[in-house]
Amino acid sequence: MSNVKIVGIERIQKKLKKNVRLDDVKRVVKSNGAEMKQKAKGNAENFKGHYEGKRFVPPTGTLKRSIELAITDKGMTAEVEPHTLYGGYVELGTRKMQAQPYLKPAFDEQKVQFRKDMDKLTR
């Protein structure tokens, strides 16, 4: 979906090599990924539904149920994403439907906690 760049990663990497075991980093990645998944699902509870022509279609919960967490790169990456074809349309909106963001707000909130957790590992 989007790329994230963390500024100052070199300094963190040097500190991590000195002070932290890789298992601790993997634990932080996994726990923050799980928290982000829950936040995204929580955001998905606020969907308003949409119109098909003049007919209002209430949300079914399918998108919320499709949000999953995958741990990749030997535990160094957490991927939270929906497994529906229309997840991006809901997140970003269309010309006929207003955006109803659920992933970006969850990410923006979780990245603050992730940085705090990683900082704790480097002390």
Characterise the protein shown here.
The protein is an alpha+beta fold. The protein has one domain. The protein is 52% helix and 13% strand. It contains 5 helices and 4 strands; from the N terminus they run ααββαββαα. β3 (68-72) and β4 form a beta hairpin. It holds the Pfam family HK97-gp10_like. This is HK97 gp10 family phage protein. InterPro entries: HK97-gp10_tail (IPR010064). It comes from Sellimonas intestinalis.
Condensed summary:
The chain is an alpha+beta fold and 123 residues long. It has helices spanning 9-19, 22-44, 62-66, 87-92, 103-121, and strands at 50-52, 55-57, 68-72, 77-81.
Question: H/E element string?
Answer: HHEEHEEHH
Numbering strands along the chain, what is their spatial order in the largest sheet?
A: 1-2
The tally of strands reads 4
User: Taking Cα atoms only, what radius of gyration do you get, to the nearest Å?
Assistant: 17 Å
Query: Any idea what the shape is?
Result: elongated
The class by helix and strand makeup works out as: alpha+beta
Largest sheet: 2 strands, antiparallel
- The separation of the N and C termini measures 32 Å
Helix content: 40-55%
Mean pLDDT: 89
User: Number of helical runs?
Assistant: 5
> Which stretches of 5+ consecutive residues score pLDDT under 50?
none
Instruction: Report the β-strand fraction as a percent range.
Output: 5-15%
How many structural units, i.e. domains?
1
InterPro entries: HK97-gp10_tail
Organism: Sellimonas intestinalis
Protein name: HK97 gp10 family phage protein
